[in-house]
Amino acid sequence: MDYVENATVPDISDVSFERILNADPREKIDIFCPATDISKYVMCLVLVILMCDVFTIVSIISTKRIPFAPKLLISITLICNSLFLVICMIAHGAGFTKPISWAILTELVRIVTVVSWTSVTILSLERVMCLYHPNLYTRIANKRTITKVVIVGICLTLCIKLSVRYLLIPLIMDDEFNFIQATKNSELIICFLGACLFINTVCYIAIFRVVKKLMKVIESLHITGSQSTDKHFVSTRNITCIIVVFQLVHNPLFISVCVNAFTENNSGNTRISALFMLIMCTVNPVLYAWRLKECRYVMFRFVGKAFNIFDKKIEVMRIEVYDITVQNV
């Protein structure tokens, strides 16, 4: 899931976790990739993806009609993606020489990953509750309650993760606490990612069933060619697209992390995990933000104001987004 998921992830074959632990502080060990032209191109790509993520975050926050809960959770997810990319760039350019530096970097990436996947999972659960219990959701889903639930959910998940890794496991193993050795263990993050993946899959299937059921009700009432039918058709298409893309991106990522954690010579596996993580950071803005019409309108509006372009397209999108009725005088 993360670029530095294991401290055992050398970029060259003769770098091992033991070598990192016993490294001379004056020796520079490049864990990620050697200073080649390819690595420079990859970092340029990371920078472009980071700029797109930041632009998307600003756009989604600036929207007015998107419900507060999806807006908040999507923003948190994209912020975590941006932090992951920043950590990758720091790790690539800083040239850390001490094992403790890599251990801290590993834990930071894991924390960012946990927050990101927790936000996505809460978003899926929130959408399921909105569809299956709309009356209850309407009564309790105000900004204050949603903010509290999100903060408590993320903080509770982080507390459980850190407590199990750095308190419970050392007590059970009856070993002397060693932060660097503790960061080497990846089973906990794998269990967490697997649980999030399962919950999200179940939620998306439940959402898909509700949307399909609504479509059947509309068809049984012989309502054809109406705006309601078109909207539900678009909803069905969108949720199908989300399910397919989510599985195509997250399942290979989860499998690569598992393989990376349970193999000894995992230099190539780590690059594959990093590649899938980079793909996820690229896909998430499209999957959760760009598909929303108002978010696209805000993005076009920002670009249009900056470069004085897209005037007609922006006006058409504004009418569509805010349901403005145009009357010919």
Give a description of the structure.
This protein has 329 residues and is mainly alpha-helical. The protein has one domain (17-297): Rhopdopsin 7-helix transmembrane proteins, CATH 1.20.1070. It is 78% helix and 0% strand. Helix 2 (37-62) runs antiparallel to helix 3 (68-94). The longest helix has 35 residues, at 227-261. The radius of gyration is 23 Å and the shape is globular. The termini are far apart. The model is unreliable at 1-35 (pLDDT under 50).
Q: Work out the helicity level.
A: over 70%
User: What is the molecular shape?
Assistant: globular
Largest sheet: none
CATH top level is Mainly Alpha
Total strands: the figure is 0
Unreliable stretches (pLDDT < 50, length at least 5) are 1-35
| Order of SSEs | HHHHHHHHHHHH
Assembly classification: single chain
Structural class by secondary-structure content? mainly alpha
Terminal Cα span = 58 Å
CATH topology: the name is: Rhopdopsin 7-helix transmembrane proteins
CATH architecture annotation name: Up-down Bundle
In CATH, the homologous superfamily goes by the name Rhodopsin 7-helix transmembrane proteins
Determine the number of helices (DSSP H or I, runs of at least 4 residues): 12
Number of domain modules: 1
Task: Describe how the helices and strands are arranged.
Blueprint: H1 17-21, H2 37-62, H3 68-94, H4 99-132, H5 134-140, H6 143-173, H7 179-184, H8 187-220, H9 227-261, H10 267-290, H11 293-307, H12 311-321
Helix pairs in contact: 2-3, 2-10, 2-11, 3-4, 3-6, 3-10, 4-5, 4-6, 4-8, 8-9, 9-10, 11-12
